Amino acid sequence: MTRLGRSGEERAEGAGDGPEAVALEIADAVENLTTLWSLAAQEAVLRLSLHQLRALRALEAAPGVNLTALAQQLDIGLPTASRLCDRLEAAGLLERALHPRKRREVQLWLTAHGRRVLGDVAARRNQALTTALAAMRPAERSALSRGLRAFLATRDDGPPGQDEPEP
Known about the structure:
This protein has helices spanning about 20-40, 50-60, 65-75, 80-90, 110-135, 140-155; strands at about 1-5, 10, 95-100, 105-110. It has about 170 residues and is mainly alpha-helical.
């Protein structure tokens, strides 16, 4: 079996195919995918920072959360989350509303404009990924898909040996 090297040349499978070598290749691929993702987001109707995009995605997944929950989910401080929401609100992407039963709590909601911006970013990212995948041979796409499914299955199952009894 052969594998691609850094410059695209094929090389024989061997010692460089261990978990550490493959991890380095995956890290390189993830870095490139992150760049592709970031460029697609920057081409969207509104240019959003990574924190802004993460906040919008979090609100999409959990509409009506409060500021504390959002800050915890994004792993940022409360003042930073508040300023982030101020900017998103000023851009018309998020709105704040008083909780119907807890007068001191403010809920955060995506606006219709915020949902459209997220849709635009997702569509651009999907198109960029589709373009990259279209440049691959069908067998390469199939192998990538199988490999990703296997990787995700191991992540879902937890670390190897976790269900094994201790000696």
